[in-house]
Design brief:
Strand content: 5-15%
Order of helices and strands: EEEHEEE
Shape: flat
Structural class: mainly beta
Number of strands: 6
Radius of gyration: 17 Å
Largest sheet: 2 strands, antiparallel
Number of helices: 1
């Protein structure tokens, strides 16, 4: 899938905070970042002009067919934690980090086979634990410390009162980025967007 934000206006795809919220992989550079295969250098008549980076290949946003994400109206109704468990999740779960038993993975094995990396001699050298990231609906994928830009992790959190778009959900710092203009009802749960950008992959 291209490294652009679905639901964004054509001509504004480099502005990754706009458009609907989507899920992305931390191993993939954001559109127009140094990790992208093509960098937008200018716009002419609404058409992007590119410079090619042939050694960089960013695949961009992940399919929301994974069954979860911050960009979906399929939030979970009352009452947590039972309703969250019935939906197949756990309160506080972090996609890419939380194992089915509720503990954290020791490395990036949930996102990549073998943790995504090995030494030249074939011995294991997996990446550190990595969160799946989100961007859009107010959260920029070009966030974090460049030039390796990141995005925002997620966690399953429950609203104690109605939560306006962009506001923290419940007593957490995770924000409501479910859908533009969508107010998350009280006692409903959703994957909230972290307040601080994820660190670069290590």
């Amino acid at each position: 899938m291209p490294a652009l934000n679905m639901g964004n206006e054509g001509g504004n795809n480099a502005g990754s905070a706009a458009g609907r919220a989507v899920t992305c992989c931390p191993f993939s550079g954001p559109r127009n970042s140094p990790l992208d295969a093509r960098t937008i250098t200018s716009w002419v008549g609404g058409i992007p002009q590119y410079s090619n980076n042939p050694t960089n290949y960013s695949t961009g946003a992940l399919s929301t067919g994974l069954g979860f994400g911050i960009g979906t109206l399929n939030h979970i109704g009352p009452t947590a934690p039972a309703s969250v468990r019935a939906a197949g999740f756990t309160v506080g779960a972090v996609p890419g980090v939380t194992l089915p038993g509720g503990t954290s993975a020791p490395d990036a094995r949930l996102l990549a086979l073998g943790g995504g990396r090995s030494n030249v001699d074939g011995t294991a050298n997996p990446y550190a634990t990595q969160q799946l990231l989100g961007f859009g609906n107010g959260g920029s994928r070009d966030a974090g410390a460049g030039p390796v830009f990141t995005g925002y992790g997620m966690s399953m959190v429950t609203a104690t009162a109605n939560v306006n778009p962009g506001d923290p959900i419940g007593a957490t710092t995770f924000k409501n980025r479910v859908q533009p203009g969508f107010v998350l009802p009280a006692q409903n749960s959703a994957f909230g967007s972290a307040n601080d950008a994820s660190p670069p992959v290590t």
